[in-house]
Sequence to fold (272 residues):
Amino acid sequence: MCLPNCREFVFRKLSRRSFLNRAAVVTAGTLLPVSTKAETLKSFSFSRVVDLTHRITPDFPTFTGKPQVKLEDHNVGPRPPGYHAYHWSIDEHTGTHMDAPLHFGGTLSADQLSVSDLVGPLAVVDVRSRASRDPDTRLTPDDLKAWEKKYGALPEGGIVAMWSGWEEHLKTEKFRNADGMGVMHFPGFHEESTDFLLRERRIHGICVDTLSLDYGPAPDFPVHCQWLGAGHWGMECVARLDQLPAQGAYLIAGGPMIAGCSGGPSRVLALV
Fold:
């Protein structure tokens, strides 16, 4: 759950940023961000599409450790041969999924997010070396500054992904990595990083290849409260970051359009 009064804390400590409204059109291998200002109009060509979405099955690892998806045959009476329809029972925060601001202290549900905020240039920050030694490592402002020193400033209106390499543990208990007390241990963002992004950069969303934006042992979910409470979105359990460059790709976050939802399973694509 969110920290007590975290919403008030977020609104008191952080000012909301206003961003240029953008839309994206994909045609013939070119992404065209549409802006009201002609000088900001740029084209983006791509040669391949990488699916960053995990396939959800009943045994997909979950934060609770319990199955969170079930399909049942939808009995609608006589049906022709080959007809199929299922009733879904699924928790919002399962598999590759979006955390909308409403999930932790914010006001916007996933369906209320501007579509222009769900598309943007992607920065992939590699913390695999530390994560292999310390499952409780977190992406820090120093990691972001090291990325910028090598590749230039984080793209305005962009998306930042933490690449911990944790996907390699997906089929094992180490993906949750719970200790004897039930405390999980896996990488996530440090709250100082999201504070930096909110104060110093203009980033729309953040992504992780683990179960949570916060690292596993976080007792009070400070990154969730801070980032989502400020009106931004996050994506958890993102797949195949190893197939992307550190910079140069565009991410499309196909979040759920269910009225009032706090997030949900999403189709996430990268154009490279």
